[in-house]
Input
Amino acid sequence: MKKLVINGGKKLSGEVLISGAKNSTVALIPAAILANEPVILEGVPEIQDVEALISILKDFNVAVEFKDGVMTIDPTNMVSIPMPTGKIQSMRASYYFMGVLLAKFGEGVVGLPGGCFLGPRPIDQHIKGFEALGASVKNEHGAIYLKAQEKGLEGTRIYMDVVSVGATINVLLASVRAKGKTIIENAAREPEIIDIANLLNKMGANIKGAGTNEIRITGVEELHGCRHTIIPDRIEAGTYLSIAAAMGDNVVVKNVICEHIEGLLAKMNEMGVNMEVGEEDILVKKSDDLRAVNIKTLPYPGFATDLQQTITPLLVKAQGEARIMDTIYPKRVNHIPELNRMGASGRVENDVIYIKGPSKLQGCEVAASDLRAGACLVAAGLMAEGTTTISNVGHILRGYSNIVEKLQALGADIQMIEVPGEE
Output
C-alpha cells in the first residue's frame, strides 16, 4: 500500500508543466478504436486511468504503444468480446465503450462503471440516447447489454433532460456512424467535448456545433487514422494554481488554456490572489490577505465541480466565511471532515460547505475519499505545519500525472512511500 508523506510549510517556486486533460483522454482512447487504422494521441498523461484503458484495449485485441506521452492505438485486428465484469468496472469512464462498441460492432456488453463515489451518477441519459438511435438496451446483473437493430443505428433528434458531459460524449460516439443526421440538444459544452469532436472529425466524422448546446452529427461509413494532440488539463491547472496561491512565491503554471478556467480565475481574483495571466501560462506571486468568496459550481463555462475541492484549502487561509454550493455533485463533501482534522473550521449544512478562516493547519493522518478530495489533502498537507500522511493515494494517481515529481521540482517536501503489511 502506498502513502504520501508531506512535510508542510515549505515555500514553493519554479515552473510546473500541465499534462494532457484526463477527462479528454479517458474518452479519446475509446474513441480512437472507431478507426480502421492506427490513431496517434500526443500529450497523454501518465495516470492510472490510462493504464486501465490500455489493459482493456488489449483485451479487445487492440495493439497499443505508449511512450513519453505518445500513444499509438491500432484497432486493425480488434474483436468484439463481452466485458460484463472485471477491469472494465474499475473506472467511471469505461462507459464510453458502450457508445464505441455500439457504433463499431452494433452490439456490446459493458460492466457498469466504478471510479470515485460522488453520490448517485445515473446513466439514464446515455441509455435514452442509445435507445433514440434505435438500439435495445438492457441492464442485467450489473452490466449493460446493447444491440443495434439489424439495419443499424439511425440518426435522430435527442434532447438531454440534464446537461451531462458523459452522456453527450457517449451519444456522440454512438452516432458518428449512424445513418443520417443526429442532433443532440441541451448538450454539454465542456472543452473536453470539443477535443473529442476534433479527434473524430480528423478521423473523418462530420460533427458540427461541439462547444455549443446543439451538436449536429452526420453519420459516415468509416473512420480512418490520424494524429491528435490532447488539450491541457484545466483541472490539473486549477489544482496547481490553488497550491501556488496558498504556498507559492513566483510559481509559473505552464501549458494552460486560460479561457477554460475563467470561473476559477475570476474567484481567485476576487480572493485577492496576486497573479499575472499570460498567453499559455500563469505566474502566481506571493499572495497575502486573502478574502473569503462564495462559490457555486455549474456546468461549463461555470465554476467546475472538479475544482471546488482543490480550492477549499486556499479558502482556509482566507479572512471571513466562504460558502461552496456544488450543484453538480452535492454529496462532494467528504474532504471537509479530513480538513477539520487538520485544524480547518468547516461544516456542511444541507449539502452546502461553509469554511471559516483563516485557520492554521496542522499535519496529521488523513485519507483520500476520491480523486479531487485527494488533491485537496495534498494542498492542505503542503500548507500545514508538521507532517501529513495521506492514505488511499490510488485515487490521486488515477488523475494526476507525476504529482510527486512536479511538486518536488517546486520545492515541496513530499514523497511516496510503500507501507508493508497493509492492504
In short: The longest helix spans residues 234-247. The first strand starts at residue 2 and ends at 7.
